[in-house]
Amino acid sequence: MKTTSIDDINLNEGIRGILKDRGTDPAVFKEALDRAVKSREKEELMKVCREFESIFINMLMKQMRATIPKSDFLNRGIDREIFESMFDEEVSKEMAKGGGIGLAREIYRSLVAQIDRKV
What Pfam families does the record tag this protein with (predicted)? Predict the structure, then answer.
């Protein structure tokens, strides 16, 4: 089995959008993953896996917010949207750092197993 690159994962537009919102070019994210895999630097690889999990959690939060019915009770101006977006981003980063939903750990285990098989 070959090592999966970020191209093989096929980032969808949601993930690409979140990367751009964070000021990260998807190509830079791909390079960071490829560099971590090639260098066999496990700490760096885990960092990239946590970042991916953070992006995934952010997508989940964004989708959950989209299900909340709009009402006139609370002002839904651009300022609130910006605040919620920034809040969700920070919460998703902290969740991923604290173990998150386990996605980073599973991606990491899979990539390390593939790296170890190549040795």
Answer: Rod-binding
* pTM of structure: 0.71
**What are the pLDDT digits (tens) for 43-78?**
888 888 888 889 889 888 888 888 888 777 777 788
Residue 94 vs residues 88, 89, 97: alpha-carbon distances, Å: 10, 9, 5
Q: Which long-range contacts (CB under 8 A, 24 or more apart) does 100-106 make?
A: 100/50, 100/53, 100/54, 100/57, 101/53, 101/56, 101/57, 103/49, 103/52, 103/53, 103/56, 104/46, 104/49, 104/50, 104/52, 104/53, 105/49
Structure tokens at 83: 């605040």
How do the domains of the chain map onto residue ranges? 6-118
